[in-house]
Specification:
- The complex is a heterodimer of chains A (188) and B (196).
- Chain A has 188 residues and is mainly α.
- Chain A folds into 2 domains: 2-132, no CATH class; 134-188, no CATH class.
- Chain A has 9 helices and no strands.
- Helices cover 82% and strands 0% of the residues of chain B.
- In chain B, helix 3 packs across helix 4.
- By secondary structure, chain B is mainly α.
- The chains are: A mainly alpha (188), B mainly alpha (196).
Chain lengths: 188, 196
């Protein structure tokens, strides 16, 4: 029970401090993974893929998934409620003072600093995913050859997806499905 | 607020929650169709305001917008009905997927699939950063803030101390207020001098 309470509190903290949408929850998820070991870094990467392929906002999906991994169905429900609660309270307050909040100089100032901070943390989370997906540290440690550090077929796939997304503008779900098939066929 | 109206709010947002892929701004056209055109609960201008506020308050944007519209239509009870409605579908779907993955994650084929998918996730994150970059990193101050926070997070493994993400968020917000206030003040002082 105390573990579940702990889970709710951690996700409430995430809901309170993650500004700038779903991916802004990532640094908090990595923190939870490092500190409490509820899920691994690879699990987080999988959660991002699952969230991108299912309806709902990514932040909610991630809390449900991470909560389930930690405490089953109840954990999934509680983690999601934990994530949503702070923002519900904040919005209820702001809804009363809508006009004053919108044009507030200090609110604007805070966002001047929060926006670059938010994408810096998302970019750093991207490095964490890349560490799992694009490099093979154990192979490099064994051979000491720099060529073994990188998973070349994964990097080639990444470049192709990047170009494909730019040119084709398909939904991310399609690229996720293609990557899954490529992963199975080429035994990633 | 009668029960029927609450149920209507819940059901409307439960449907919206099931068709919103990608969250946030992907939700705007759906809300426009369902709430502005079909039900006339709100106007397009109000909807845009809710989004700009939902974006700059903590938490998930789609959820913030649901809470906002629910509150406008039915007070606190309405806000809860809309928010819980929006959450219902995604929670159920993710619980099913999570249960499936927990049981089948050991299969070799699933592991290969997810190894491939993780590559795609890297690209999705890079795309998200590039998309947000233009609006966020606009001058030397914001660039410096980006680089410092990126370094603190990306190289946290080799740094002697780990700064909690919550502390970074608070510091970034405070610095933003400080720098923009100082800038406004010096701009104001300069204007004053020009008038003399």
């Amino acid at each position: 029970m105390s573990e579940l309470l702990h889970l709710v509190l951690e996700f409430a903290k995430t809901g309170l401090f993650s500004v700038g949408g779903g991916l802004a929850t990532l640094p908090f998820l990595y923190e939870m993974s490092d500190k409490w070991g509820w899920f691994s870094h690879a699990d987080i990467a999988d959660m991002i893929a699952v969230s991108e392929s299912t309806p709902g906002a990514i932040g909610i999906n991630m809390s449900t998934y991470a909560g389930f991994r930690t405490g089953g169905v109840l954990g999934g429900l509680l983690a999601t409620i934990g994530l949503a609660t702070p923002s519900i309270i904040i919005i209820l307050i702001i809804a009363r003072f809508l006009a004053r909040f919108r044009n507030n100089r200090y609110v604007e100032g805070a966002f001047y600093g929060l926006r670059p901070a938010s994408i810096a943390m998302i970019a750093a989370a991207g490095i964490n995913v890349a560490k799992v997906a694009l490099v093979n540290l154990s192979a490099y440690a064994q051979t000491g050859q720099l060529g073994d550090l990188f998973v070349w077929k994964a990097i080639l796939l990444a470049v192709l997806i990047f170009i494909g997304q730019r040119k084709l503008k398909w939904s991310p779900v399609i690229f996720i499905a293609i990557s899954a098939v490529v992963g199975i066929v080429l035994k990633f | 607020m009668d029960f029927h109206k609450l149920l209507e709010l819940y059901w409307t947002f439960a449907q919206i929650g099931c068709v919103t892929f990608g969250g946030g701004y992907a939700m705007l056209p759906i809300l426009e169709r369902e709430l502005v055109d079909k039900r006339q609960w709100t106007t397009m201008d109000d909807l845009r305001d809710y989004f700009s506020i939902g974006q700059c308050t903590p938490g998930v944007i789609a959820l913030n917008v649901s809470t906002f519209i629910g509150e406008k239509r039915g007070g606190v009870a309405g806000a809860l009905a809309a928010t819980i409605g929006f959450l219902t579908g995604p929670i159920l779907i993710i619980l099913v997927i999570a249960a499936f993955l927990t049981n089948f994650a050991q299969l070799e084929i699933i592991q290969h699939a997810f190894a491939g998918i993780r590559v795609c996730v890297c690209v999705l994150i890079v795309q998200a950063v590039l998309r947000l970059w233009k609006k966020s990193v606009i001058d030397p101050f914001t660039l410096a803030l980006f680089l410092i926070i990126f370094a603190l997070n990306a190289f946290s493994g080799v740094l002697p101390v780990k700064v909690p993400a919550a502390v970074l968020v608070l510091c970034a917000g405070a610095l933003g207020i400080l720098v923009s206030t100082m800038r406004n003040r010096s701009a104001g002082a300069k204007e004053g001098k020009d008038h003399e």
